[in-house]
């Protein structure tokens, strides 16, 4: 079973990773830990380095628990939701696990909701953790 975790280093993403670990153990799964960034300018170098460190931390945690995993930092200019769904389709992922945060209606309108986009557009089951 291929399990993708949308991961940004937040507490919600960490909770999603923990649930994915349980599912991977139960179903002999392989976890893909994925971070999506828009990218674009020199100021993003620090953010990219921080994202790489966060992915490495997640990978080390999974490997300590004997769970097969790969990390991916996506910088393709897509919105986070589009990027994650594209990755799911490209890699024939069986299940997505993502953490969600409570947002006001205005925040959703202005910033959108990555989780909502993934839930509505992923071609596989999506588990959300709050």
Q: What do you see in this structure?
A:
By secondary structure, this protein is an alpha/beta fold. The chain has one domain: Rossmann fold. The protein is 50% helix and 22% strand. The protein has 5 helices and 5 strands. The chain has helices spanning 11-27, 44-64, 80-91, 105-111, 114-121; strands at residues 2-6, 30-37, 69-75, 95-99, 126-129. The protein has a 5-stranded parallel beta sheet, with helices on both faces. Helix 2 links the parallel strand 2 and strand 3. Helix 3 runs parallel beside helix 5. It is globular, with a radius of gyration of 14 Å. The protein starts with a strand and ends with a strand.
List the helices and strands and how they pair.
Elements: E1 2-6, H1 11-27, E2 30-37, H2 44-64, E3 69-75, H3 80-91, E4 95-99, H4 105-111, H5 114-121, E5 126-129
Helix pairs in contact: 3-5
Strand content: 15-25%
| Backbone CA Rg | 14 Å
Helix content: 40-55%
Number of helices: 5
- The CATH topology label is Rossmann fold
Instruction: Describe the global form.
Output: globular
Sheet with most strands? 5 strands, parallel
- Corresponding CATH architecture: 3-Layer(aba) Sandwich
The total of beta strands comes to 5
- The main sheet orders its strands as 3-2-1-4-5
CATH superfamily: HUPs
N-to-C SSE series?
EHEHEHEHHE
Number of domains: 1
Q: Which structural class do the helices and strands define? A: alpha/beta
Kindly, what is the distance between the CA atoms of the first and last residues, rounded to a whole number of angstroms? Answer: 23 Å
Mean pLDDT: 90
- The CATH class turns out to be Alpha Beta
């Amino acid at each position: 079973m291929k399990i993708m975790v949308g991961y940004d280093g937040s507490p919600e993403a960490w909770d999603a990773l923990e649930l994915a670990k349980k599912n991977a153990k139960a179903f002999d799964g392989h976890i893909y830990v994925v971070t999506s960034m828009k990218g674009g300018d020199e100021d993003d170098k620090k953010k990219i380095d921080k994202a790489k460190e966060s992915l490495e931390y997640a990978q080390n945690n999974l490997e300590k628990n004997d769970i097969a995993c790969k990390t991916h930092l996506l910088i393709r200019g897509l919105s986070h939701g589009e990027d994650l769904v594209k990755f799911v389709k490209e890699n024939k992922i069986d299940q997505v696990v993502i953490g969600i945060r409570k947002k006001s209606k205005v925040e959703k309108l202005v910033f959108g909701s990555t989780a909502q986009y993934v839930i509505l557009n992923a071609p596989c089951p999506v588990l959300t953790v709050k």
